Amino acid sequence: MKVRMIQGAKIISTGSAIPHTKVSNKKISSIVETSDEWIFSRTGIKERRLLTEPGQSVTDLSIRASKEALDKISMDADQIDLIILATSSPNDLFGSASRIQYEIGAVNALAFDLTAACSGFVIGLVTASQFIFNGTYSNILVIGSDVLSKWVNWSDRSTCILFGDAAGAAILQSCDSHLNSMLNFHLSTDGNYSNQLSIPYREKYEPHPVLNLSQGSFQFISMNGKEVYKFAVSQVPLSILKCLRDLDMSVNDVDWLLLHQANDRILTAVAEKLSISHNKIISNLSNYGNTSAASIPLALDEALKSNKILTNDIVVIAGFGAGLTWGTIIIRW
Ligand code: COA
């Protein structure tokens, strides 16, 4: 399928929020059998932020990130038409987006959650662009936010070393020019591997005596690290190449490679497969670990704050994760 944006949709502002508590690899080594050397050499992670303040949730981080994005461009929240919250760790299974809508004062916005794990922000941005493309909405707030520390088994060394908590937000706006906007996207899912990375729901209580209905609860994150690694390194370059080819572009046109911050080795392997120079990789993994749906908007916000990304730069954004789901967006900044 050939997909091209017909009307312009561009990111006009970003914001992010991280919890105050830093947790080093050394600290993790005090709770499971591992070491700073093992974690850093296998993942590139040095430390992560964890949301430890009592009563704080994904909603609070999302509100902070959203307010920063709005404040940066002095935009009133009532100008937002839609809020999409990409998260897999809501504090309400019915959705957390509506609380954010209320707290930031986006009184004119529809708000809903989107669950797509580490691909959530990419899929959220593409979803938002469709509303802009068909003329329904003009200003859309897309938030990627996760507090996976609540769902990590802190005695499982194969997963607890990886994840951190954060939120990132981007405001997508319709624009007349197609030049400095989202140029193309590609999204995929292979549900056959859904059990390779999941937070499964399990029934565990005795069935209700009258209704014969079982109930249960969600478990901790379960992951087949090797399979997820192989999937990311094989599928993400193909997705990026497809997206570039559809635009008659090549890897030589790419200025910045902004991948989901899962593992430094994945970032490097994808760049090498594409023959994209290492200094074009945007990475903040060492400071935050894998923050799931937040990782791309957080890294994007930091890259913009440090003036890395400049006008007209071609930015390739790719997310991947549980589902298994993956996708690419190409933006001319
Ligand atoms: N510290 C020390 N040893 C550890 C360890 C840890 N934290 N975790 C696992 N090990 C051990 C294993 O028990 C195994 O020991 P054994 O050889 O005696 O059996 C050995 O290290 C190798 O384990 P393995 O799972 O093969 O390691 P790996 O090289 O595949 O690295 C990951 C593990 C998780 C870092 C890697 O698979 C990975 O990054 N996968 C992608 C995960 C990911 O990005 N998920 C999110 C996607 S959105």
From TrEMBL:
<keyword id="KW-0443">Lipid metabolism</keyword>
<keyword id="KW-1133">Transmembrane helix</keyword>
<comment type="subunit">
    <text>Homodimer.</text>
</comment>
<comment type="similarity">
    <text>Belongs to the thiolase-like superfamily. FabH family.</text>
</comment>
<feature type="transmembrane region" description="Helical">
    <location>
        <begin position="314"/>
        <end position="331"/>
    </location>
</feature>
<dbReference type="InterPro" id="IPR016039">
    <property type="entry name" value="Thiolase-like"/>
</dbReference>
<comment type="pathway">
    <text>Lipid metabolism; fatty acid biosynthesis.</text>
</comment>
<feature type="region of interest" description="ACP-binding">
    <location>
        <begin position="261"/>
        <end position="265"/>
    </location>
</feature>
<keyword id="KW-0275">Fatty acid biosynthesis</keyword>
<dbReference type="GO" id="GO:0006633">
    <property type="term" value="P:fatty acid biosynthetic process"/>
</dbReference>
<dbReference type="GO" id="GO:0033818">
    <property type="term" value="F:beta-ketoacyl-acyl-carrier-protein synthase III activity"/>
</dbReference>
<keyword id="KW-0812">Transmembrane</keyword>
<dbReference type="InterPro" id="IPR013751">
    <property type="entry name" value="ACP_syn_III_N"/>
</dbReference>
<dbReference type="Pfam" id="PF08541">
    <property type="entry name" value="ACP_syn_III_C"/>
</dbReference>
<keyword id="KW-0276">Fatty acid metabolism</keyword>
<dbReference type="InterPro" id="IPR004655">
    <property type="entry name" value="FabH"/>
</dbReference>
<feature type="domain" description="Beta-ketoacyl-[acyl-carrier-protein] synthase III C-terminal">
    <location>
        <begin position="245"/>
        <end position="333"/>
    </location>
</feature>
<feature type="active site">
    <location>
        <position position="290"/>
    </location>
</feature>
<keyword id="KW-0472">Membrane</keyword>
<comment type="function">
    <text>Catalyzes the condensation reaction of fatty acid synthesis by the addition to an acyl acceptor of two carbons from malonyl-ACP. KAS III catalyzes the first condensation reaction which initiates fatty acid synthesis and may therefore play a role in governing the total rate of fatty acid production. Possesses both acetoacetyl-ACP synthase and acetyl transacylase activities.</text>
</comment>
<keyword id="KW-0150">Chloroplast</keyword>
<keyword id="KW-0934">Plastid</keyword>
<dbReference type="GO" id="GO:0009507">
    <property type="term" value="C:chloroplast"/>
</dbReference>
<feature type="domain" description="Beta-ketoacyl-[acyl-carrier-protein] synthase III N-terminal">
    <location>
        <begin position="112"/>
        <end position="191"/>
    </location>
</feature>
<dbReference type="InterPro" id="IPR013747">
    <property type="entry name" value="ACP_syn_III_C"/>
</dbReference>
<keyword id="KW-0012">Acyltransferase</keyword>
<feature type="active site">
    <location>
        <position position="260"/>
    </location>
</feature>
<comment type="function">
    <text>Catalyzes the condensation reaction of fatty acid synthesis by the addition to an acyl acceptor of two carbons from malonyl-ACP. Catalyzes the first condensation reaction which initiates fatty acid synthesis and may therefore play a role in governing the total rate of fatty acid production. Possesses both acetoacetyl-ACP synthase and acetyl transacylase activities. Its substrate specificity determines the biosynthesis of branched-chain and/or straight-chain of fatty acids.</text>
</comment>
<dbReference type="GO" id="GO:0004315">
    <property type="term" value="F:3-oxoacyl-[acyl-carrier-protein] synthase activity"/>
</dbReference>
<keyword id="KW-0808">Transferase</keyword>
<feature type="active site">
    <location>
        <position position="118"/>
    </location>
</feature>
<protein>
    <recommendedName>
        <fullName>Beta-ketoacyl-[acyl-carrier-protein] synthase III</fullName>
        <ecNumber>2.3.1.180</ecNumber>
    </recommendedName>
</protein>
<keyword id="KW-0444">Lipid biosynthesis</keyword>
<keyword id="KW-0511">Multifunctional enzyme</keyword>
<dbReference type="Pfam" id="PF08545">
    <property type="entry name" value="ACP_syn_III"/>
</dbReference>
